[in-house]
Amino acid sequence: MQETNINLKEAAKKALEIEIENIRNALEDSDLAKYNPHVRLGKEISSDMFLSVGQLSMKGVLWYTIKCKLVVTGYKVGAVKFKGKGFGFDIGIFTSEIVGSFIVDPDTMKEDCYFALAAVDFAEGIVTFAIFRKKFGELCGVFAGLTEGLEIGVVAGKGKITTIGF
């Protein structure tokens, strides 16, 4: 299990690096650029800022539900619950241990948020999950994990975050 956790942390770190690169390469007048000046201006972003581990589950056939619980460490310690549902390209069910980082204080996100999730799983697979403050605008966190189940899905939508203990 130790080796798996290290690989998950590296996968989550790589996913965060890709998102940061996409933001830094976005056109100046794009929403992505406008909502992420903290990333574009070269501010140092560490994948250990609000390191998070937890469980993510998704199920559905076109209508999906997502549930995620994370323990957050780093500058602050607490827990985050995420729920989302909607229509999208999704067929199946999976559960995943995920690892990643928030790059903003999760306790400042007591509001609706947006997310993007991609999962491919035939007995075993992988999932990536990103959370944004505005509709695909301000990046707040990126997570990755290995999945168990049967799933193929690429969905994006609106969700709700609840924080505990910050």
The total number of structural domains is 1
Number of helices: 3
The CATH level-2 architecture is identified as Beta Barrel
CATH class: Mainly Beta
- How would you describe the shape? globular
CATH topology name: Lipocalin
Beta-strand content = over 45%
Helix content: 10-25%
Indicate the radius of gyration in whole angstroms: 15 Å
Series of H and E elements: HHHEEEE
Strand order of the largest sheet: 1-2-4-3
Largest sheet: 4 strands, antiparallel
Low-confidence stretches: none
Question: How far apart lie the N and C ends?
Answer: 28 Å
Which oligomerization state do the chains in this entry correspond to?
single chain
Question: Your description of this structure?
Answer:
This protein is an alpha+beta fold and 166 residues long. The protein has one domain (2-164): Lipocalin, CATH 2.40.128.480. The protein is built from three helices and four strands; from the N terminus they run αααββββ. The chain has helices spanning 2-24, 31-35, 37-40; strands spanning 50-72, 78-102, 112-132, 139-164. A four-stranded antiparallel beta sheet has the order 1-2-4-3. The longest helix is centred in the N-terminal third of the chain and has 23 residues, at 2-24. The model has no long low-confidence stretch (mean pLDDT 82).
Helices and strands in order, then pairings?
Elements: H1 2-24, H2 31-35, H3 37-40, E1 50-72, E2 78-102, E3 112-132, E4 139-164
Antiparallel strand pairs: 1-2, 2-4, 3-4
